[in-house]
């Protein structure tokens, strides 16, 4: 009976530190022996933690921790991510990732809160038929909102993409795990406080998760989405107004996503005339021929292996572009998402790929454009995705299109000045030299002249600067937005295109005059080999990738520090942090084996992931590309997970200095995987996506 765990006691119920103390305080005479034993064990545990980890800011003397026991009969799949602040129905404030094995740090057990079930729906035959419900603000005051997405599925099914809207505004983009015959489940918590203004009004809630079921692919996704509303110490200042750049189909219950390039992702918006700050966010996800955009080859080489078929092209470089009235205002170079059926499915059970359950959006500060946008007129916002067209002799230009297809939406988050004020100023000056591209390729042949190998490389650099003077109610200020990005990708096809290797690196700096700054690095190595024998085929793959993001100041979305600020023990050190640093790496090897006659398949592999999350401080002077130099840091969260053949064999975590273990259930199954995609070959069943 460990003091750090919930313990169920006959005649008493579930015990936590606080409940055991309350029972002891209100007991006259002898205390129940089980409660007394629990408290004695808890005291010993607290003293041990204080002796062994005296610097822990979440030592149990200040806040309580426990691990939820793993009781689920279904295989629990999960994404590794920093814990989120939420509240449970009894008013207990927790930092947790919501899973049945979650580390839970209890912050406060006396918060007023309320909960709502927003969606309870089984996505089965749901292509073109999203869930549509009515959202009504809850009957309680709140400045924080956390969503809990819990999904269960059984059978065989592809991974699917899901998007949640409030009206015409996308608020959450996710994807599913692939189920097993015995069933899987997952829970993901998301801090939704950035959308606070939307939660204060009635709106349609639309959850679009297209799925199909037949005799082979039998898995429905039984989905529950709940919201928790509460009040907590908060440094977030959510936007006053959120405006969509979407297909605007919410009024008819449709999904408001653009499909690019077949759609023109464009909409006219009229901003409030007293706007003080404005940030454009863009959600962009490649699908079908563009799912593995990072493995595509040069356009000049797509017919290198005619016996194999046409390769996917426009190079492995992608740029998401935002235009205001036809003028480029900023760009995003996307993070390479790999879904749970991608490359080799055995890589992603039970640990899914980085961001697979929460596809992040990119931010572009358009405050320098406010003197134009606050003139009372409608202005056009357009989003495009571009690859490269190359000449075949080492030069390349933006293609202004891609293969099919990308799912795109955008939003403008607006913070307002005083009522009645009209924002004026100078039109933005623009420093935007043409992007620089260097490409090369070479083809090797065998004795009969047949092409057998292809090697290609792409390097790209881009810098942008927009600056204007804004007349706000408190006076004149300079508004600026600066971006500097670099990209490289080397690809190699061998064995007549049956083996492919890609090594990619994307790095960038975004710096705003508002104090917000971001530095990111997305390294990726991917190897895949495809072999056939009779009616069997085998795919072997190796993945080694990472995501490193440092943010300073306040953007649109939470940095992660907000979840820790509610702890009294941590709150005292949070104000010293000026930002956050998230670093994660994921590497693995896996094999997929399938029989085309019997339509059976299996997959097995090893995946390891490490993640750290730090609070950081920065010097006042600018570092590279205007990004401040980091002067100090403190680890708030660390986790290491190792999964072998569908079973977690190691899972350790440290939460603000306190080590915590995880409990996991039995082994998962390696059978019944749906191979949804392979680099260089696209989806095997793209029509079922």
From TrEMBL:
Pfam families cross-referenced by the UniProt entry: PNGase_A_C (PF25156), PNGaseA (PF12222)
Region (Disordered): 657-689
InterPro entries cross-referenced by the UniProt entry: PNGase_A (IPR021102), PNGaseA_N (IPR056948)
Superkingdom assignment: Eukaryota
Positions of the Peptide N-acetyl-beta-D-glucosaminyl asparaginase amidase A N-terminal domain: 112-427
Protein name: Peptide N-acetyl-beta-D-glucosaminyl asparaginase amidase A N-terminal domain-containing protein
């Amino acid at each position: 009976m460990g003091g750090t765990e919930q313990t169920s006691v006959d005649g008493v119920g579930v015990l936590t530190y606080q409940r055991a103390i309350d029972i002891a305080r209100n007991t006259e005479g002898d205390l129940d022996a089980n409660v007394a034993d629990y408290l004695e064990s808890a005291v010993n545990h607290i003293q041990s933690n204080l002796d062994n980890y005296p610097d822990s800011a979440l030592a149990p003397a200040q806040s309580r921790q426990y691990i939820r026991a793993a009781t689920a009969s279904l295989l629990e799949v999960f994404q590794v991510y920093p814990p989120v602040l939420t509240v449970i129905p009894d008013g207990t404030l927790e930092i947790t990732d919501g899973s049945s094995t979650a580390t839970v740090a209890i912050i406060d057990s006396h918060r007023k809160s309320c909960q709502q079930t927003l969606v309870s729906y089984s996505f089965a035959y749901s292509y073109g038929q999203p869930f549509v419900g009515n959202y009504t603000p809850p009957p309680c005051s709140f400045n924080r909102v956390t969503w809990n997405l819990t999904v269960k599925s059984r059978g065989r099914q592809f991974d699917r993409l899901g998007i949640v809207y409030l009206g015409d505004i996308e608020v959450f983009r996710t994807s599913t795990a692939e189920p097993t015959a015995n069933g899987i489940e997952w829970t993901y918590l998301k801090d939704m406080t950035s959308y606070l203004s939307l939660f204060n009004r009635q709106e349609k809630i639309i959850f679009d998760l297209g799925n199909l079921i037949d005799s082979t692919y039998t898995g429905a996704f039984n989905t529950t989405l709940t919201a928790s509303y509460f009040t907590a110490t908060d440094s977030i200042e959510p936007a006053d107004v959120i405006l969509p750049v979407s297909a605007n189909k919410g009024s008819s219950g449709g999904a408001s996503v653009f499909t690019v390039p077949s759609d023109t992702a464009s909409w006219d918006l009229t901003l409030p005339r007293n706007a003080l700050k404005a940030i454009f966010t863009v959600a962009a996800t490649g699908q079908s021929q563009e799912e593995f955009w990072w493995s595509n080859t040069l356009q000049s080489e797509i017919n290198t292996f005619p016996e194999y078929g046409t390769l996917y092209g426009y190079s492995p470089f992608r740029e998401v572009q935002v235009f205001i009235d036809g003028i480029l205002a900023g760009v995003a170079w996307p993070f390479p998402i790999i879904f749970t059926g991608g490359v080799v499915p055995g890589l992603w059970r039970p640990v899914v790929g980085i961001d697979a359950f929460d596809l992040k959006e990119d931010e572009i500060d358009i405050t320098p454009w406010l003197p134009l946008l606050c003139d009372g007129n409608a202005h056009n916002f357009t989003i495009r995705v571009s690859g490269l067209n190359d000449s075949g002799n080492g030069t390349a230009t933006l293609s202004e299109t891609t293969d099919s297809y990308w799912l795109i939406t955008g939003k403008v988050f607006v913070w307002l000045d005083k009522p009645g004020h009209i924002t004026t100023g100078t039109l933005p000056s623009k420093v935007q030299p043409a992007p620089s591209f260097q490409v090369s390729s070479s083809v090797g042949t065998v004795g009969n002249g047949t092409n057998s190998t292809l090697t290609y490389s792409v390097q790209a650099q881009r810098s942008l600067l927009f600056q204007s003077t804004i007349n706000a109610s408190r006076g004149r200020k300079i508004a600026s937005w600066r971006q500097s990005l670099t990209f490289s990708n080397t690809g190699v096809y061998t064995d007549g295109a049956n083996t492919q290797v890609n090594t990619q690196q994307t790095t960038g700096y975004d710096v705003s005059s508002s104090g917000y700054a971001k530095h990111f690095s997305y390294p990726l190595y991917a190897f895949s080999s495809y072999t056939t024998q009779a009616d069997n085929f085998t795919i072997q793959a190796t993945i080694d990738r990472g995501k490193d993001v440092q943010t300073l100041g306040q953007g649109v979305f939470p940095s992660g520090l907000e979840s820790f600020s509610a702890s009294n023990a941590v709150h005292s050190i949070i104000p010293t942090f000026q930002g956050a640093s998230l670093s994660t790496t994921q590497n693995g090897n896996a094999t997929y084996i399938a029989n085309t006659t019997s339509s059976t398949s299996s997959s097995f592999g090893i995946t390891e992931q490490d993640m750290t999350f730090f609070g950081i401080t920065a010097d006042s002077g600018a570092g590279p590309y205007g990004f401040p130099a980091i002067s100090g840091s403190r680890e708030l969260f660390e986790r290491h997970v190792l999964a072998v053949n569908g079973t977690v064999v190691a899972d350790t975590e440290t939460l603000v200095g306190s080590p915590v273990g995880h409990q996991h259930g039995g082994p998962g199954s390696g059978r019944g995987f749906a191979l949804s995609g392979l680099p260089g070959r696209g989806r095997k069943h793209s029509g079922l996506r």
